Automatic annotation (TrEMBL):
Protein name as catalogued: Threonylcarbamoyl-AMP synthase
Residues that bind L-threonine: 36, 68, 122, 182
Domain YrdC-like: 14-200
Keyword Coiled coil: no
Binding-site residues for ATP, renumbered to this chain: 59, 63, 142, 144, 152, 196, 236
Keywords associated with the record: ATP-binding, Cytoplasm, Nucleotide-binding, Nucleotidyltransferase, Transferase, tRNA processing
Signal peptide: none
Molecular function GO terms recorded: ATP binding; double-stranded RNA binding; L-threonylcarbamoyladenylate synthase; tRNA binding
One CC-aspect GO term: cytoplasm
Similarity-based family: Belongs to the SUA5 family.
Amino acid sequence: TKRWYANDFQQDKQEAIQSAAELLKAGETVAFPTETVYGLGADATNKAAINKIFQAKGRPQDNPLIVHVATPQQLKELVTSIPNYVDKLLEAFTPGPITFVLPSNGRCAENVTAGLDSVGVRLPGHPIALKLLQEAAVPVAAPSANLSGKPSPTSADHVWADLNGRIAGLLDGGTTGVGLESTVLDCTQAIPIILRPGGITKEQLEEVVGTVMIDPGLANDKEQRPKSPGMKYRHYSPDAPLWLVEGSSEKLQQVIDAEMKKGHRVGVMAASKTVTAIEADFKIDLGANMETVAATLYDALRMFNEHDVDLILCEAFSEQGIGQAVMNRLKKAASDYIK
Ligand code: TXA
Ligand code: MG
């Protein structure tokens, strides 16, 4: 795997991006930073190239990929029709962390959409991603650049740890910003439906288009099947079991104490205020506000694997704003939820 350093201080940043774009055009896989998480890209019109993504990640074939483009015009070239509200959302939030699921016109390779008649398209807001897409001049399919089942990568080192030797290239642009994946929005109906909460919140969407629904399949009741194939998998799992704990820091401390008494080594992750109020074997401070919690969450999940804990406890957060995406990922990672 060829690794280029493409941060702003690098003289040869443009050449690095150009070389990465050449690899993409030649049908190879390249990991690159976006404003959400690192993506593992390949030419979306090249079936053999797309197959390499599924192989490198060990990704189930029935899980469709998001296609990344540089301009709204390129998005329009991949779909049969666009509702008016999508034009408003494009104007308000792109380039940025939102994916539009629209009726596909079949231009992408069939393994990109996993046989669905819709395609997810997004215009990423990261300068390196945008430059790469412009240079490659093809739509680039890119799932998160992690091994399937691991937390999504928010740094080039995360990508390297998972995929070194399995992909052709990695553009290292430092850590990503948002830290959680894009909001996936089903735009094939009269009213948009959130299939995966993410970087753009429900509240933000509603300000622009009024009513927005949430896929009932996202609720944890296991009755309904999520409409987004990727949401049915248990994800993001650290090696040790993770329990979500709702309530005060005193209550969290009681759970910690009970587990430590059993001889378990207990790791805790929580917002700054809670972290300073509790005692445990190993603590990770996720930050003082929800934006920081979102940005540090995946790195924290990976960090526990290196600290040999028997159990991870995480405080439950309010499902407001970006908290909705944070809790969605935590619930998928958790094996228990103590209320
Ligand atoms: O922020 C992101 O979206 C990152 C960066 C790299 O862009 N990408 C990402 O891709 O998270 P991935 O493959 O890890 O997640 C894509 C999600 C999956 O849950 C998939 O099932 C869903 O989007 N998806 C893709 N196309 C879809 C479609 N046509 N209909 C419904 N869901 C779709
Ligand atoms: Mg993923």
